[in-house]
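Progress report, Aim 2. The chain analyzed during this reporting quarter is listed below.
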Amino acid sequence: MVLLVFVDLDPDLAALDVLGGFFVLRTGVPPRGPLPTLARAYEAREVDHPGEVYGDPVIFRVRKVSDSLRTPETRVAVSVAQQALAARLWSVALGAAALYGHLPDLDPELLRWDPDGSAPDDLWLSEVRARPASAIGTVVREGHLGPLETALRSRYRVSPGLLRGNAASALAGAWRQLDRWARTHDRTDVADRARTLAVGLLREPGPAGALDPRTLRRRSCCLYYRLPGGGLCGDCCFDRPPDRTPGRR
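Predicted structure tokens for the chain:
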């Protein structure tokens, strides 16, 4: 018999701080002033909101990633930007569900996003209210990843298979990191809850088609190898970087 101990969500989501990195979620009012909500960012058209610095937050982020990585290929920057945001969302949701036993409502209207920022200061939750851990797929996949995919494909020519592979890979990566932390700190309860949730999510139609269910190896490539100095990721579908010679596959 295993005793599972759940704790209430605290206003600062402070329990996530021990996980660090992509798992931390800031709450309250962003210090940098008004930031767009993710609901605003997902609007599938370029709009001009007076008083907002970033104009179209998605386009701003992709341009920032492109400049930072010095890639001439926009689709590579789109891929990297989307996978990073997917990893943030999966990490916060899975980490909270495993530590607290439930998760904060990550409604896109409640999450403010700084497309010029980096984790953990890129996301700010304006109100902390609990949702059951079983809602994690609805909260992240339907609330964010679907609208984000729509937004990106309305702005750029990018494969849906690439984006869905990124999202599934981000989920698997968040699970691996959380499992590693839990076992290092003798938190088998956290490891067990994370595994139950992650395995269930990875069996759903989208992720199951994007990753090999036995190895969690991707069926698509995130294009990281096309960056200057880039290589293959640990879960890449390729065994070696494809030939980039013009005219050859």
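Confidence is low (pLDDT under 50) at residues 1-5. The beta strands are 26-27, 102-104, 111-113, 123-125, 130-132. These observations will guide the mutagenesis work planned for the next reporting period.
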